[in-house]
Amino acid sequence: MTQPQSAIQREIRQRRPFQSRSQEGVIALLRTADVVRRVLARVVEPHGITLQQYNVLRILRGAGAEGLPTLEVGERMIEQTPGVTRLLDRLEAKGLVRRKRCPHDRRQVLCFATPAARRLVDQLDAPMDRADRDALRALETGELDALLRALDRVRSGHAPRGHAPQDRSRAHALKPT
Amino acid sequence: MTQPQSAIQREIRQRRPFQSRSQEGVIALLRTADVVRRVLARVVEPHGITLQQYNVLRILRGAGAEGLPTLEVGERMIEQTPGVTRLLDRLEAKGLVRRKRCPHDRRQVLCFATPAARRLVDQLDAPMDRADRDALRALETGELDALLRALDRVRSGHAPRGHAPQDRSRAHALKPT
DNA sequence: CCCTTTTGCTTGACGCGTCAAGCATCTGGC
DNA sequence: GCCAGATGCTTGACGCGTCAAGCAAAAGGG
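^ Those are the sequences you sent over. The predicted structure of the assembly is below.
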């Protein structure tokens, strides 16, 4: 099934062809993710937060009144702890996150979304939902299903993190709650 | 076609379901791209460069002896100019890039891969090709084709950049030459 | 020619993302 | 109890990625 000349290839102004279909797929995947990321970022930025900050707030909204320890937040993103600490620092400075030492285990720091953060995230629910649909608007239902299946398989082919020996699944943000 | 309970959903430790299939697709896309990016990064990092630096060097190798102005490099990545300037600064400091004012248009700065850079990139060709295949190893040929088609359509649904009114296609790195 | 505008790039400031180190707190073995 | 190790987080350093501002060279108009 030799392709005519793929979209990616034209986009990149290439001289030489791809070395493999896989290479083409990898490049398409990374480029597409960047495009989509930017689409979503434009939705939240006018509200004074970044996409990553929005992710954190959404996670914390879902955690509710019990809050969530820092590492737990990090696990739901795809990020290392240090990044999370500083992300939370910035959100705390903006009054969108409150932190508190856990009394039962004083090593942990519990994080909470403030009421202002909840209002902000609630307000962004509808626009973000629209942005998600818009980002993938070019796909018909069948294509979306196929995409999802393919992406799931790609991820399932790789250890959760590469760091930890082989613990269970990790998670990213942008989670619905 | 209600899915049983998607992979993503489990990975994220969710309580509530996705708001839409599109949301699920967007999250899967971003997460998968992150995973793949890390797989590739691990290949080049032992050689003392980052994935982005590798991208630039590959582009410059393809440009050959005429070199490429800074902005042209940026266009083949998905990045703004300032990032490219500094990327090139670091590569120049490492002796992998040489820069020179263009005599015909003294505003431009032509960039070249040094022989050391060429050797490095040549040396990485095979490992990177293997990594590309490895990254998508879980996909069968048909799935890879479907993925590619879906990704191309997603990108085609969005203006090249959102900044420039509507100029022609942009490009990313990781390009074969 | 001169003067405005455009083009090509650099700089400054800021928010990530990651690694390596460091510090406090808990845990398990004794 | 006590102490070595594990755990949870923070800090420092560095490489991106992006916006806004700045500067020099080129282009275009008069």
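Residues 161-177 of chain A have pLDDT under 50 and may be disordered. The radius of gyration of chain A is 19 Å.

Shout if you want it in another format.
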